[in-house]
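Handoff note, outgoing to incoming analyst
You'll be picking up this chain. Sequence as last confirmed:
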Amino acid sequence: MTAGLVIAAPRSGSGKTVVTLGLLAALRQRGVVVAPAKTGPDYIDPTFLGRAALREAVNLDPWSMSPRRIKHLAATQATGADLLLVEGVMGLFDGAADGDGSTADLAELLALPVVLVVDADRQSQSVAPLVAGFAHWRVGVRVAGVILNRVASTKHERMLVDALTATGIPCLGAIPRNPALALPERHLGLVLPGEVNEFDSFLAEAAAAMGDYVDLARFQAIAAPLDADVSAAPSLPPLGQHMAIARDDAFAFAYPHLLDGWRSQGAQLSFFSPLLNEAPAFDADAIFLPGGYPELHGATLAAANLFKAGLVAARDRGALLYGECGGFMVLGEALVDKSGTSHAMAGLLPVTTRIDRPKRILGYRRLIQSSDLPWPGHLNGHEFHYSSAKQSRLPPLFAATDARGDAMPPMGAVIGRVMGSYAHVIDAA
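Most recent structure output, in case you need it:
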């Protein structure tokens, strides 16, 4: 039976992504088959995790997904692996605006122990009450070990480890400060692995650090068994029997659990690259444009005449065209990038989007729809963008509330069977 662990931290920026990547690579180098997973709706971290594990990562989202779905996804992901390693999100107890959906919620649901990554920079003995507070804050969440990060010296390490002795929680490792253990970021988070120069060298550095400074045998030994006997939850229906799905650096944000669910229901999935000016399959009855970074590729997409003509042809033959966030932007008339340059998009929705918000729009959404989307009327999703949309008066795709249930402005637009919004749909509500 596969065992599992959750990597968490007291706060964002503690280094849990780098530590998780290093652990995945270090364990893989030692012959351990590790299945990676990410807490929450994040698209980018799972790409890095999959690259480190050489095995696709999956999202486990305790706010948007039912307990049954999470347990089934975790068990399926762990099949054939020695260890399921789940990276947390933000701080251990940080969740949505309503307080739900935290890494702690996921750890408790799956009955998995937590390893806490603590940024030790500019503290010493105070690490003990910090760790003790997290360990005893919530019954049902077991902090089983600590990895200290950004330790300044051998003396600093000794002070930290001595202080932790009083907590009774083992220190599994102490990682020295190392400027090489850093990943670049941009407006929506980390860049994609393919955009990181010498990513393999970074990963080797991270794996070496974990191998040198973390007791990997002890780390594995505290993992707990997963419940493998979990029946599948119903998946969202496919958008069509043959779905053409955009896939490249401009359209990188498609959840694996949705794709797998559509395949399991008998849908044919074909993929195409708008950045390579590829058109969707001529016989597809549904086109899905996921989110991504179209604003970084505005000129290329504007010049992709075969791609845009393929969308028009699909609309004209009655196919369903659905775009999420970046895909919604591309269905519009124009995309104005951060420099103010306007790029012509597909022109299928009277929408112009601009990268102009000083602050990001971020949060979970409860969505209600009555369109041609073959999905339930009530859905759970997530919104994360810096752009704004100016559009003509059109029927919205979704009525929406935030995680607390407070009303949000209607989202997206619909013309016939062409539709989209800024929401990334995760599951049925």
